[in-house]
TrEMBL record:
Binding site for substrate: 135, 165, 237-239
Taxonomic source organism: Parvibium lacunae
Transmembrane segments: 6-26
Name of the protein in its database record: Do family serine endopeptidase
Keyword Transmembrane in annotation: yes
NCBIfam families linked to this entry: degP_htrA_DO (TIGR02037)
Active-site positions on this chain: 135, 165, 239
């Protein structure tokens, strides 16, 4: 009898060990489930989290075809042309000079030559609105867009925002496919991204990489900087193109690269779709982007500068100058003050200050928390409207 019980026990253990081996080999995620107790005292089995699934599942993505195919029809090539005047020869109107040399040096008014450039853009609305970089279409006399399906169209400029280097164009074509916007707040460093554009004019090209960093600023590229950094290859001609996730949803507008040779070195920057959408909405609805303004000249407060000024901390932004008769001047802000918070939001650097002030509504009240001569003070300022940026001379 005991011998029989022992055989049954041994067989049961053998079966359990075999089952455990099969599960650990083919379904390891099942072993990661944890037991939890509810408020009523009932024990339940908790399924593995998404992170645990990613770690335990040995599957790998072998293709980003789906994301590329979803986004490629929405990315366009942008061709711009500009008439450039060239000075005429000083003797071009001299009869004797023209007798010997003819009209090869031109006559009358200065000669006109056509300057060509290229870039990329993204169709963001079935109504024909296209986002691109301001520097792609700046000062252009004509803008032509070439779609992925072979169609071409002349584009008109709806509005530009040099502060973010964005521009909104519009084309009149039927059956336009628009890109889907992603939630940029869900983007994390390490996420796979695709860059789509027209590098060096070779035609539409897709490159892949990851998100290398978020919130890049102090690059001296734009006034308002909050870039997505990526190692996906971005080259001249990609400007204004799309940075998308693996599902083809728009994360940002490719804008700049860090390069010593002019080619990609694996450090590219894209304007987040959240900023691009705000610019698009303002330009389409109001004709221009409206931002808050308080009229100060900020400077990053380093630890060395803080020590020189006799401050206890290096948090905040030094007010190096105050625009006369501006909102801050009227509120009593003085050069040498250190701005540490706006409406209770901590300010760490000039980039953060500019971005925060820009989001304030002109005409509204804002509370500035300042440190003046090592004493904390609070001032109420009436937010003004940021003046239009000065455009480059042509």
């Amino acid at each position: 009898m005991l011998h029989r019980i022992w055989l049954i026990f041994a067989q049961a253990v053998t079966i359990l060990v075999a089952a455990l081996f099969v599960v650990s080999t083919f379904k390891p995620a099942w072993l990661n489930r944890t037991s939890q107790t509810t408020a009523s005292g009932v024990a339940i089995i908790q399924a593995p989290s998404e992170d645990e699934k990613l770690i335990s599942t040995p599957s790998a993505i072998s293709s980003f075809r789906q994301g590329a195919q979803a986004a490629m029809p929405t990315v366009v090539n942008v061709y711009t042309s500009k008439k450039v005047r060239t000075p005429q020869h000083p003797f071009a109107n001299d009869p004797i000079f023209r007798h010997f040399f003819g009209d090869r040096f031109g006559s009358g008014d200065s000669q006109r030559q056509e300057s060509m450039s290229l870039g990329s853009g993204v169709i963001v609305s079935p109504q024909g609105y296209v986002l691109t970089n301001h520097h792609v279409i700046e000062a252009a006399d004509e803008i032509e867009l070439a779609l992925a399906d072979g169609r071409k169209a002349q584009a008109k400029v709806v509005g530009v925002d040099p502060d973010t280097d964005l521009a909104v164009l519009k084309i009149e074509l039927p059956n336009l496919q628009a890109i889907t916007f992603a939630d940029v707040n869900q983007v994390k460093v390490g996420d796979v991204v695709l860059a789509i554009g027209n590098p060096f004019g070779v035609g539409q090209t897709v490159t892949s990489g990851i998100v290398s960093a978020l919130g890049r600023s102090h690059l001296g590229i734009n006034t308002f900087e909050n870039f997505i950094q990526t190692d996906a290859a971005i080259n001249p001609g990609n400007s204004g193109g799309a940075l998308v996730d693996s599902q083809g949803r728009l994360l940002g507008i490719n804008t700049a690269i860090y390069s010593r040779s002019g080619g990609s070195l694996g450090i590219g920057f894209a304007i987040p779709v959240s900023i691009a959408k705000q610019v698009l909405d303002d330009i389409v609805s109001k004709g221009a982007v409206t931002r808050g303004y308080i009229g100060v000249e900020p400077k990053d407060l380093t630890s060395e500068l803080a020590e020189t000024l006799g401050l206890k901390a290096s948090d905040g932004v030094l007010i190096a100058g105050v625009i006369r008769n501006g909102p801050a001047d009227s509120a009593g802000v003085q050069p040498g003050d250190v701005l540490v918070a706006i409406n209770g939001t901590r300010i760490d650097d000039t980039s953060g200050m500019l971005n925060h002030v820009a989001q304030l509504t002109p005409g509204s009240k804002a509370e500035l928390q300042l440190v003046r001569k090592q004493q904390s003070t609070r001032l109420q300022v009436t937010v003004g409207k940021r003046p239009k940026p000065k455009l480059r001379a042509e």
